[in-house]
Model the fold of this input.
Amino acid sequence: MAMAISTNLNLVLTFCIPTVLFLLFVRWLKKGRSLPPGPFGLPLLGNLPFLSPDLHRCFADLSRTYGPVMTIRLGCRPCVVLSSSSAAREALRDNDLTFASHDVPAAALAAFNGINLVWNPYGPVWRMLRKMSVREVLSASSLEAVRPLRRREVQRMVETIHAKEGSAVEVRELVFLTTLSVMFGMLWGGTVNDEGAGNEFKEAMDGIMECLGKANVSDLFPVLAPLDIQGVAKQIVRFRDSYFRVFDSILEDRRNEMDANEGGGRDGKRDFLQVMLELLDKGGDSQVPLKIDQVKGVFFDLVAGGTDTTSTTVEWAIAEILNNPDIMKKVQDELDEVVGKNRCVEESDIPRLPYLNAVMKEVFRLHPVVPLLVPYSPSSSCTVGGFSIPKGTKVFINVWAIHREPSVWKDALKFEPERFLSGNDKYDYSGNNFNYLTFGSGRRICPGIPLAENMVMYLLASLLHPFEWRLPKGTEMNLKEHFGIVLKKDKHLVAIPSGRLSKTIFSA
Ligand code: HEM
Done:
């Protein structure tokens, strides 16, 4: 009897399991048939074993074989990569409402479920949070109101560099701390240096960004997400909690100040924190209630979204300029002509620096720091390039590849700011020119464009007007990229500054 049961069990194991696996495989293949073409992958693992870590490059190479609308299987998940301007236009303009929500990675879901801007689905909460951020922080009038703050922080950076003349400086770190201070100042009047909050916040933010950048089994095999096999969800929640603690202490200080000033803000100013707290006390705007966690989520988005991107762009710019001495000379000649040698650059000089502006545009083209944008998740099935894309597919838009398309960009791989000097108007940041999409397009286009444009120009001018830069002896320029949510330099740029203007103008 026992032997008969064991034989039956063996039969089941020998025939049924392979049959079930085979049927699952056939279903998986059939399901994929209506999707755009793409490289053949392995069952379960998909194309994972064959992809290189530089996803933007790897996707660009594959799209030359499989076309501008291509399927890639990341583990169990079929994803679609769009690599041409016409495919991007079809998604982000012709199907803008369908492409109005981002795909939410498992780690982001664990830490920010519904509380921030980037990963909130399109709808009333997202609209309210975005409206608040633009109106109170990123609009022209809000930015104008904090011009002195940017001036103070940029001057601080210049002083720091003066103190380090002749020694090696890590450019990105300096610029990062400056942009972080600007963001802190704009949001709640803090700075990185004089508040203990600065370092703790930075640590928590770095931790969260690192977790978000990890290849997470939970994203590749969503059925396994509840197990959190690598512990990424657990880690990110720990970092988020430590960010929340920093925020709570800032909040408590502000509440105390408000009580002491009978509801008024710090020094009578209404910064973003103040506005959000007043709104919170009112219970939200007329349609949507606001929760304290959403205030924390949006703060995080603005700081994280504004600092890494800006400082990485400036680092790429200085690297390219150092690599092209002619361009360095043209930038400095323009600065000397417009600003002169007897005063510091001011923000008001920026509109009169067309060559530097062209340099910035060329950096945005050749080194778009968000190379695949923030991946999308179509809210219903749709058609792009004649292929159907099912609802909920993760869709990447390879801006990095679009910006290097040889039929659009002459000498596409060359760093050539001059291309933006004639016909400059053709390439702005509105997201209407689908050959040039550094800030994305459509409903999710970056809301920080005016600040980003202003900061990149002001920082570059303030690095290049007062200083000459050279590489440390025995080092060579390395323009290799390191793929991540933000496309960084593989090795951070280290350069040596030396003064080119009289120091007395900086103490004036
Ligand atoms: C060089 C600087 C910057 C670049 C290249 C950049 C690029 C981008 C890109 C590509 C997106 C995604 C767009 C899409 O999904 O189509 C984005 C979204 C976003 N950016 Fe920026 N950004 C920069 C600076 C800033 C700044 C300074 C802020 C604010 C302080 C900011 C805040 C945001 C936010 C909140 C989102 C999410 C918007 C949403 O989902 O509705 N960014 N950015």
